[in-house]
Each structure stands twice: as C-alpha cells, then as structure tokens.
Design brief:
Layout: H1 2-16, H2 23-35, H3 43-46, H4 49-52, H5 61-72, H6 75-81, H7 90-104, H8 113-120, H9 125-137, E1 141-146, E2 151-157, H10 168-222, H11 226-240, E3 242-245, E4 248-251, E5 256-263, E6 269-276
Helix pairs in contact: 2-5, 7-9
Length: about 280
C-alpha cells in the first residue's frame, strides 16, 4: 500500500521529465521530486533520459548524484560527499533521514540511540525520537521507542528503497543459498519421517507375531495331550471294577465266600455262608 502511494506521488514528476530538456530544468525537477510529500521511490525518475543527461553536465551532475543518494543511499553518504552536492532544504533533510532509517533498520546492531544519532546527524535523543515518530506516522516502518534501554525496536519496514546497482547478484546468491538450505532441511525431514514410519511398521509386525504366538500357545494349553487322555481312560476302566466300603476299595471280582458259625435262638450253631471282605 505504501509502495503504491509512493509510486503515485512520483507520477507527476515522471510526466514532467519530458519537458525538462535542459540541465537546469532537470536539476530543478530533482529538487522538486525529492522535496515533495510521499515521494520515496525514485528509480523510475532516475533512469529517465533527461535525468541521465545530467551526468554530462559539469555544473549539474551533482543533482544526478543527489538523486542517486535519495534512491539507494543514506544520510551518511550525503554528508561524506556534501561539499560537491547541492544543499538540502528542510524537507529533503527530513526525507533523507527517514529513508536512511529504513536502511539502518535492516540490522538491529544499528538501532541503538547512539548509533542512529551518529548515522543520521542528530544532536539529541529528542530529535531522534521525533524522527522515528514521523517515520512511523508516514507508514515507513512499525517501531517502538525504548528510552530505558536506549534502543529503537523495529517490527517491520515498508519496501520503499530502490535497489543499488549491482545489488541483485548478491541478493540472488543469498536467496539461492537459502533455497539450498531449505531443500536440505526438507530432505532431512522426509528421511526422518520415513524412518519413523519404518519403525512403526516393524513394531506393528512384531506385535502381530507376538499375538499369533500367544494364541497358538493358548490353544495348545487348552487341548488334552495323548498321555493325559490315556490316564483318564485307565482310571475310568478301573473305577468300573471297584467298589468302596468301610475298609476301602474292593475288587468285585476277587471277593471270596466264607462260612461262619452263628448261634440260633435254640442255642445250636448254624453255619452261614458269607463273603470274605
């Protein structure tokens, strides 16, 4: 959204570049574009023929260099080359500091009050905090101030900086290296997932074997053996030929008869036949 807003703000100056046929007009166009509100992207204007023609102008080539700094440079770059560059007005100074803050926010090591004040040419903590607040309200970044720790905590940065010449190949190398790391990580994860699946399959197979073996042993325990069956049959046969009395088991087939003399009522002895127990 902020990027679209910045591109729309640059449109009038892109239309005017066709009329800027002289170096003076082109230099004035640079000043107006960099001073206007909401203009933060300058790459399209920078590559127009009228602006590029400033490179061959001995007196206005500095305006081309200034636009390059606004496009992808920093306030520190401007101060380093300031003797050869046009003087900034208040609007340009504020905007270049805001754009520089976007570049510095890429590295958290640059976000202490001390380092930011030095890089942005600010003399006091209050000036730095005011600059951060204006950048937040302009939609350039999402940040909070931490006066106790003397740092600026940046949460997000709007894509409102142009790429410097030669910045694409290193970026592509970093993206390629990142892609290779992602591919390697995915390969390792897939290998671990497959190993887990294999282990689960082996555990399931072992469990099934154990269950089958348990069922087989249970069935064997329930079935009578031939020896125990023979013993039961013999016991049944013996049991049929035995009877039990007061003296224990007696074989019905081995009983013997015996005669016993018994006194009758008349006092005479009578021989009675009884079985011998």
């Amino acid at each position: 959204m902020e990027q679209t807003k910045a591109l729309n703000a640059l449109e009038p100056f892109l239309a005017l570049h066709k009329t800027a046929t002289s170096p003076i007009a082109a230099a004035d166009l640079v000043t107006r574009a960099t001073s206007a509100p909401n203009t933060y992207l300058f790459s399209e204007l920078l590559h127009t023929p009228s602006i590029q023609s400033l490179a061959s102008s001995p007196t206005h080539a500095s305006s081309l260099a200034l636009l390059q700094i606004f496009s992808y440079g920093t306030y520190a770059d401007y101060r380093a080359a300031s003797p050869a560059l046009p003087k900034l007005n208040d609007s340009q100074t504020l905007k270049l500091r805001q754009l520089s803050l976007l570049s510095l926010a890429r590295d958290r090591r640059n976000l202490t009050y001390e380092k930011l004040s030095e890089a942005l040419g600010l003399d006091s903590t209050r000036d730095l905090e005011n600059l951060v607040v204006t950048a937040v309200y302009a939609g350039l970044l999402d940040a909070t101030l931490d006066p106790n720790r003397q740092v600026v905590q940046v949460h997000s940065v709007a894509p409102l900086r142009d790429l410097a010449p030669g910045a694409v190949p290193p970026m592509m190398e970093k993206l390629s290296a990142w892609s290779d790391r992602c591919t390697s990580t995915l390969t390792d994860l897939e290998a671990e997932i497959q190993a887990i699946k294999d282990q689960a399959a082996r555990r399931q197979w072992d469990q099934e074997l154990k269950e089958k073996e348990t069922q087989r042993l249970t069935a064997l325990l329930k079935e009578p053996t031939s020896e125990s069956a023979g013993k039961k049959s013999a016991a049944a046969v013996v049991g049929k030929g035995m009877r039990f009395g007061k003296r224990g088991a007696v074989d019905d087939h081995t009983e013997e008869a015996m005669d016993v003399d018994v006194d009758d009522d008349a006092g005479s002895k009578v021989r009675v036949s009884r079985r011998k127990l």
